[in-house]
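__Protein archive entry__

___
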Amino acid sequence: MQDQKLHKLFGKPTLGRNRKTERKHALRPAVRHLLAQSNMSQKVNLLDSDGKNIENQHYYKIRLADGSELGYAPSGMSVTSAKAICAPMPSNAGALFRFVPKDDSKNGVPWTVGEVGSLKGLQSREDGTVLKLGLSLSSPPTGGTAALGWYDSASWGFTGKQLAGNRVALYARNKDAKDVGLIVVDLGRNESALVEDRSGDCIPLDCQFVRMAPITAKF
């Protein structure tokens, strides 16, 4: 009689298949939450033009949509303390770049989305010299525009996001450790430069990392 009264108040307990189904549905939100946490914890690597991980043991060309490549460029533009500015060069005239992670002691270290890494470039000049410098955003005076330049010192770094077609959205770090966009500006006289995007939209540089050759000696 007592059980019958309880059943009237709270309903009969679910038995057999219904109880299993109830338990299964009760677990689903928890399982989905764990799976979501697992997916968030997995790091996603940036990919080169062939769909392979961008790693610290290979040289790359950084190629833009029009076929030009980033490299060392003579220019009338003055960049604070820089040896040279970084600008788009004709195809096959750009620098060889290598990704430098925080821990560069091992080979095969991939560049993950959102990770801050440095970029160093190597380029042979017409006089036979070889330039080996770090790429970094400049530190302009108040009100000035920061530009990409080549430096002896360590870079503030870069971050990237993956785009469709194995392309990379490249961002530069500024002196305040913030990601900023990069745009190409025309300086006239067939010269151009890469400067910080100041539109407020943080527009990144749309580019591809084209794998060229293994690195035999790091610099």
The longest helix spans residues 16-41. Helices lie at 2-10, 16-41.
